Amino acid sequence: MLTTREPGNRNSSLKSKTTVVSDMLELMKKSAVCPYNSRLQKGGALLEDMRTLVRHWPPSEESTVGVATFVHSALAKQTSARSLDTFNRAFKPRFLDGDPKQAWRIVRPVEDQGWTAEQIRPLYYWITARNDKLLYQYATEFLAGQERGFPRVDSEHAALWITSTIRPVGLAWTSTVTIKVARGLLAALRDFGLLAGDAKKRFVTGHLSMATFAYIAFALHRQGVSGNMLVDHPDWRLFFLTTRQQRERLFMEANQARLLNYQAAGSLVSIDFPSNSFEDYAHVVTERTNRPA
Questions:
Q1: Prediction pTM value
Q2: Alpha carbon separation from 136 to 86, 89, 151, 155 (Å, rounded)
Q3: 181 and 219: one domain?
């Protein structure tokens, strides 16, 4: 017997398929533009791993091993899968494909110059925060405004902040994921030297040396930031430098140390540097900040 399908059923089926496709496209669109991720839940700063990869990167042109083998050899973790996960989750988005691009080239010269951990940590923090919007916003929008009035922070408060921050973009994580991200966020800030403590963390002051301040200013300058825009750049809030007076004082001190040339006349500001490459400037900063008194 020949059967026929009612037109209404066919239209209903077509409408259902169209709705599914539309929902999938909307989900893909949100995923593509969503500025937040939960990568921090699995390791936070991973500072020593990042430093190791920066010091060894890139694989030599003569090397016949793949990236996975190269990374596993450098990190020496228990399994190659864990090493590759660290590479894909942290090193690649921060130091290869992030902003600035190929950021490992920024920190490699100071690693080669033998800068101390205290000098180097803020550089890795700056690069990491620029490539993790959640970390960047938490530091610049929440912590920078609470440094004096909110002396301690904990994962519960951070989790509430995360939830309220990601909700406007249509993102919702489970409570388990959210608390893990919050702990990773605070652990990263502790490892980068901005917070101290275990469960309840407190602010740490004086974490940005003159050498590091000048080097970050140079890195921003290399991106085309100059004059007043360099003095007032929002990245300084990552280090709780929230007032113009604080930033101007550091630029004047860097000028006195001959790390840069800072000239201000009224509203006009001119800032120049004695080098054009990271390699040369790392050498200049090392020489002029470590010279005998």
A1: 0.85
A2: 20, 17, 19, 17
A3: no
